[in-house]
Amino acid sequence: MPTAVVHVLLTIIAIDLFRDYFLPKHHLKKFPRWMVLVGGIAGLLPDVDMPFTWAYNFIFGTNVNFHAGVTHAYIFAALFLGVAWLLHFMKKEKASMLFAIIFFGYAFHITLDFFVLGGAYMPLWPFSAFQMPRTFISLDHLFGLDAILLILWLVHEEFKHKIKDYI
Ligand SMILES: [Zn+2]
Asked: What is the mean pLDDT of the chain?
Protein backbone atom coordinates (compact mmCIF):
# COMPACT_ATOMS: atom_id res chain seq x y z
CA MET A 1 0.00 0.00 0.00
CA PRO A 2 1.32 3.46 -0.84
CA THR A 3 1.08 4.39 2.85
CA ALA A 4 -2.29 4.78 4.53
CA VAL A 5 -2.17 8.59 4.36
CA VAL A 6 -1.57 8.67 0.60
CA HIS A 7 -4.42 6.19 0.10
CA VAL A 8 -6.88 8.33 2.05
CA LEU A 9 -5.67 11.61 0.51
CA LEU A 10 -5.75 10.44 -3.11
CA THR A 11 -9.21 8.96 -2.65
CA ILE A 12 -10.60 12.08 -0.95
CA ILE A 13 -9.06 14.31 -3.63
CA ALA A 14 -10.43 12.20 -6.50
CA ILE A 15 -13.95 12.14 -5.01
CA ASP A 16 -13.88 15.82 -4.08
CA LEU A 17 -12.73 16.90 -7.56
CA PHE A 18 -15.52 14.79 -9.05
CA ARG A 19 -18.04 16.42 -6.70
CA ASP A 20 -16.76 19.94 -7.42
CA TYR A 21 -16.42 19.75 -11.19
CA PHE A 22 -18.29 16.80 -12.69
CA LEU A 23 -21.36 16.14 -10.56
CA PRO A 24 -24.41 17.95 -12.00
CA LYS A 25 -25.44 20.57 -9.45
CA HIS A 26 -28.94 19.16 -8.94
CA HIS A 27 -27.34 15.97 -7.59
CA LEU A 28 -25.43 17.78 -4.83
CA LYS A 29 -28.25 17.20 -2.34
CA LYS A 30 -27.78 13.44 -2.38
CA PHE A 31 -24.01 13.83 -2.18
CA PRO A 32 -23.30 15.85 0.98
CA ARG A 33 -19.72 16.74 1.80
CA TRP A 34 -19.39 14.14 4.60
CA MET A 35 -19.66 11.41 1.97
CA VAL A 36 -16.28 12.53 0.62
CA LEU A 37 -14.79 11.61 3.99
CA VAL A 38 -16.57 8.24 3.99
CA GLY A 39 -15.06 7.61 0.55
CA GLY A 40 -11.61 8.40 1.89
CA ILE A 41 -12.05 5.93 4.72
CA ALA A 42 -13.35 3.33 2.25
CA GLY A 43 -10.06 3.90 0.44
CA LEU A 44 -8.39 2.19 3.38
CA LEU A 45 -10.82 -0.72 3.72
CA PRO A 46 -8.83 -3.31 1.73
CA ASP A 47 -5.98 -2.91 4.20
CA VAL A 48 -8.07 -4.29 7.10
CA ASP A 49 -5.92 -7.34 6.48
CA MET A 50 -3.04 -5.48 8.16
CA PRO A 51 -4.55 -5.05 11.66
CA PHE A 52 -5.96 -8.56 11.18
CA THR A 53 -2.41 -9.83 10.55
CA TRP A 54 -1.11 -8.04 13.66
CA ALA A 55 -3.92 -9.35 15.84
CA TYR A 56 -3.58 -12.91 14.49
CA ASN A 57 0.18 -12.98 15.06
CA PHE A 58 -0.23 -11.46 18.51
CA ILE A 59 -2.84 -13.99 19.62
CA PHE A 60 -1.30 -17.10 18.07
CA GLY A 61 2.37 -16.14 18.35
CA THR A 62 2.81 -16.77 14.64
CA ASN A 63 4.52 -14.76 11.92
CA VAL A 64 2.09 -14.99 9.03
CA ASN A 65 1.13 -12.23 6.62
CA PHE A 66 -2.41 -11.86 5.30
CA HIS A 67 -1.71 -8.47 3.76
CA ALA A 68 -2.62 -7.93 0.09
CA GLY A 69 -4.60 -11.17 0.14
CA VAL A 70 -8.26 -11.65 -0.75
CA THR A 71 -9.32 -8.22 0.51
CA HIS A 72 -7.40 -6.83 -2.49
CA ALA A 73 -9.78 -8.46 -4.98
CA TYR A 74 -12.22 -6.37 -7.03
CA ILE A 75 -15.07 -8.73 -6.16
CA PHE A 76 -15.38 -7.10 -2.74
CA ALA A 77 -15.60 -3.67 -4.34
CA ALA A 78 -18.24 -5.06 -6.69
CA LEU A 79 -20.36 -6.12 -3.68
CA PHE A 80 -20.70 -2.45 -2.67
CA LEU A 81 -21.61 -1.54 -6.25
CA GLY A 82 -24.27 -4.26 -6.21
CA VAL A 83 -25.80 -2.79 -3.05
CA ALA A 84 -25.69 0.67 -4.68
CA TRP A 85 -27.65 -0.65 -7.70
CA LEU A 86 -30.17 -2.35 -5.45
CA LEU A 87 -30.76 0.85 -3.46
CA HIS A 88 -31.04 2.80 -6.71
CA PHE A 89 -33.88 0.57 -7.88
CA MET A 90 -35.51 0.97 -4.48
CA LYS A 91 -35.37 4.74 -5.10
CA LYS A 92 -33.10 5.26 -2.08
CA GLU A 93 -30.89 7.67 -3.98
CA LYS A 94 -28.81 9.04 -1.12
CA ALA A 95 -27.98 5.60 0.31
CA SER A 96 -27.26 4.39 -3.22
CA MET A 97 -24.79 7.24 -3.71
CA LEU A 98 -23.09 6.35 -0.41
CA PHE A 99 -22.49 2.75 -1.49
CA ALA A 100 -21.32 3.86 -4.93
CA ILE A 101 -18.72 6.05 -3.22
CA ILE A 102 -17.59 3.20 -0.96
CA PHE A 103 -17.29 1.07 -4.11
CA PHE A 104 -15.09 3.71 -5.71
CA GLY A 105 -12.85 4.08 -2.64
CA TYR A 106 -12.40 0.31 -2.37
CA ALA A 107 -11.68 -0.26 -6.08
CA PHE A 108 -9.39 2.79 -6.23
CA HIS A 109 -7.27 1.33 -3.41
CA ILE A 110 -6.79 -1.97 -5.24
CA THR A 111 -5.82 -0.07 -8.39
CA LEU A 112 -3.41 2.24 -6.53
CA ASP A 113 -1.61 -0.72 -4.96
CA PHE A 114 -0.58 -1.79 -8.45
CA PHE A 115 1.73 1.23 -8.66
CA VAL A 116 3.74 0.47 -5.58
CA LEU A 117 6.65 -1.90 -5.73
CA GLY A 118 6.67 -5.03 -3.62
CA GLY A 119 5.14 -8.48 -3.98
CA ALA A 120 2.00 -9.26 -5.90
CA TYR A 121 -1.71 -9.65 -5.25
CA MET A 122 -4.75 -11.28 -6.87
CA PRO A 123 -7.22 -8.59 -7.96
CA LEU A 124 -9.30 -11.08 -9.99
CA TRP A 125 -9.75 -13.64 -7.18
CA PRO A 126 -11.74 -15.96 -7.07
CA PHE A 127 -12.20 -16.03 -10.85
CA SER A 128 -8.51 -16.13 -11.59
CA ALA A 129 -5.37 -16.72 -9.55
CA PHE A 130 -3.58 -14.18 -11.76
CA GLN A 131 -0.90 -12.50 -9.69
CA MET A 132 -0.77 -8.79 -10.37
CA PRO A 133 2.86 -7.71 -9.99
CA ARG A 134 3.32 -4.48 -8.07
CA THR A 135 5.53 -2.25 -10.12
CA PHE A 136 6.77 1.24 -10.98
CA ILE A 137 7.33 3.15 -7.77
CA SER A 138 9.30 2.11 -4.73
CA LEU A 139 8.07 3.30 -1.35
CA ASP A 140 11.17 5.51 -0.98
CA HIS A 141 10.03 7.61 -3.93
CA LEU A 142 6.70 8.18 -2.24
CA PHE A 143 8.39 9.86 0.67
CA GLY A 144 6.97 13.35 0.96
CA LEU A 145 4.18 12.65 -1.53
CA ASP A 146 1.60 12.84 1.26
CA ALA A 147 2.78 16.34 2.22
CA ILE A 148 2.78 17.57 -1.40
CA LEU A 149 -0.70 16.16 -2.02
CA LEU A 150 -2.08 17.68 1.16
CA ILE A 151 -0.70 21.13 0.35
CA LEU A 152 -1.95 21.08 -3.26
CA TRP A 153 -5.38 20.00 -2.12
CA LEU A 154 -5.57 22.61 0.64
CA VAL A 155 -4.61 25.29 -1.91
CA HIS A 156 -7.39 24.04 -4.18
CA GLU A 157 -9.90 24.07 -1.31
CA GLU A 158 -8.81 27.56 -0.31
CA PHE A 159 -9.53 28.91 -3.77
CA LYS A 160 -12.58 26.83 -4.48
CA HIS A 161 -14.36 27.05 -1.14
CA LYS A 162 -12.51 29.72 0.81
CA ILE A 163 -11.83 27.33 3.69
CA LYS A 164 -10.33 30.15 5.73
CA ASP A 165 -13.89 31.37 6.28
CA TYR A 166 -14.50 28.29 8.41
CA ILE A 167 -11.48 28.67 10.67
ZN1 LIG B 1 -3.44 -2.29 0.11
From this structure: 86
